[in-house]
């Protein structure tokens, strides 16, 4: 499928070649669904070439504080390699963990390495967005202009109570209004009524990953209209959802050309500093 404008998938999860097959096999068994590809950078590039997606944004999650430096070194390498590619096919955000000893130094290094933002997943990382220990991180990220890309809502492999509700995200936004936030899964996986009530219309970005096939199409359309296409990002959550089918579902909404361009690439390109 080829549109007459670029497409950026703002939400994928990729792994180094040496561990991709093992990690994806284990997570596939845990999630209970087969992956769309093998979880490698090359696998993502190949699948996206098939379905007309120009750039994928990798969102690495450090599940242990000791992983942060290693994950970010790999992610920086992906970004450096990709600068020489034509077209630019994969970019990566950075990883962070709430238990990092020197938040200032870690975030300064992330900014210096050219990362546009940082991915957080409170269910895997065991914290809440409004924990007092996170305040310094949000302040520093705001000052550095780093985007906070947040998992939002429930999680298939964890049990409630969840740490990342739409209400928690709204509170974070109100406490740190200068922090640029992307809330994944339309603001709250399996919490879409709450997200529609408290996040739609707020000055945060919502991505569409893990929504198509999980919630009514009519509600997706309604939430985009209420929130604004200018603050909505296309995302698949690949390899756990197929990017091509996710893009087809977005097109099935029948959005206007301008809104579709904003969602498919303009918003992500500006927010995450991606040249396409």
Task: Describe this protein's structure.
42% of the residues lie in helices and 11% in strands. α4 (103-112) links the parallel β4 (94-95) and β5. It has one domain (8-271): TIM Barrel (Alpha-Beta Barrel), CATH 3.20.20. The chain starts with 7 loop residues before the first strand and ends in a 5-residue tail after the last helix. The model has no long low-confidence stretch (mean pLDDT 94). It has 276 residues and is an alpha/beta fold. α2 packs parallel to α10 (243-251). It has 11 helices and 9 strands.
Q: Would you state the CATH class?
A: Alpha Beta
Assign the structural class, choosing from mainly alpha, mainly beta, alpha/beta, alpha+beta, or little secondary structure. Answer: alpha/beta
User: What is the C-alpha radius of gyration, as a whole number of Å?
Assistant: 17 Å
Order of helices and strands: EHHEHEEHEHHEHEHEHEHH
* The CATH fourth-level homologous superfamily: Metal-dependent hydrolases
Number of strands: 9
Principal-axis shape: globular
Strand order of the biggest β-sheet: 4-5-6-7-8-9
Low-confidence stretches at least 5 residues in length (pLDDT < 50)? none
Helicity range of the residues?
A: 40-55%
CATH architecture: Alpha-Beta Barrel
Number of domains: 1
The name of the CATH topology is: TIM Barrel
């Amino acid at each position: 499928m080829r549109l007459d404008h670029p497409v950026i998938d703002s939400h994928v999860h990729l792994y180094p070649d040496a561990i991709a097959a093992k990690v994806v096999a284990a997570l596939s068994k845990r999630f209970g669904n087969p992956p769309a590809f093998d979880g490698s950078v090359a696998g993502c590039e190949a699948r996206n070439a098939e379905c007309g997606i120009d750039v994928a944004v990798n969102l690495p999650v450090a599940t242990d504080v000791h992983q942060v430096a290693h994950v970010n070194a790999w992610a920086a390498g992906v970004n450096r390699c990709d600068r020489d590619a034509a077209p630019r096919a994969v970019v990566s955000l950075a990883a962070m963990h709430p238990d990092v000893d020197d938040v200032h130094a870690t975030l300064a290094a992330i900014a210096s390495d050219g990362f546009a933002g940082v991915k957080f997943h409170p269910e895997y990382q065991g914290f809440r967005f409004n924990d007092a220990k996170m305040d310094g991180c949000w302040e520093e990220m705001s000052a550095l202009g780093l985007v906070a890309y947040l998992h939002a809502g429930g999680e298939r492999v964890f049990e409630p109570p969840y740490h990342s509700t739409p209400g928690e995200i709204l509170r974070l936004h109100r406490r740190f209004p200068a922090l640029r936030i992307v809330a994944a899964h339309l603001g709250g996986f399996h919490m879409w009524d709450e997200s529609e009530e408290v996040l739609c219309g707020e000055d945060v970005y919502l991505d569409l990953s893990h929504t198509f096939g999980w919630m009514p199409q009519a509600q997706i359309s309604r939430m985009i209209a209420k929130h604004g296409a200018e603050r909505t990002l296309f995302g698949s959550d690949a390899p756990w959802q197929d990017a091509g089918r996710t893009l087809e579902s977005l097109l099935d909404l029948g959005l206007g050309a301008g809104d579709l361009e904003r969602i498919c690439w303009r918003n992500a390109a500006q927010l995450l500093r991606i040249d396409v």
